[in-house]
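DUF3817 domain-containing protein: structure tokens wanted.
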Amino acid sequence: MTPRSLFRAAAVAELVTWTLLIAGMVLKYALDAGDWGVRIGGSIHGFVFLAYLVVTTVVAVNQRWSVGALVLGWASAVVPYATVPFEVAVARRGMLEGPWRRTADERSGVWDRLLFFVVRRPGVSAAIGVVAVALVFSALLVVGPPVPKG
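Answer:
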């Protein structure tokens, strides 16, 4: 899996889960069908949102994006359906070209060493990533929704 294919998959997954969340909101608010659609769609979307942020960060470090490009990538997940247009834009600019970097060079820093660990051990890294996202997701569930019930 290349940086481009991983980022594309994450962008599409984020788009799909936005659809689930919006469908749940339509069920709740327009059809008065209860909040089960928002709970299910929102939970899936929340998990994928966090995973997208992680994938965007890993790809940005590998591709040596500017901080501005990274922040714009994160922000694209906040706006419904913006991750795929963002992915298309960075792909057109050549910002997703090339393989995973596996060795250090004169420009390598701390984040690159972490990237090399991730690239050399994709299974272990994926497992750590899923657990980390699940822990953050669980903590956010304990904190509660971003808006008070009412």
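The CA atoms of residues 89 and 95 lie 9 Å apart. The chain has a mean pLDDT of 92.

Cheers.
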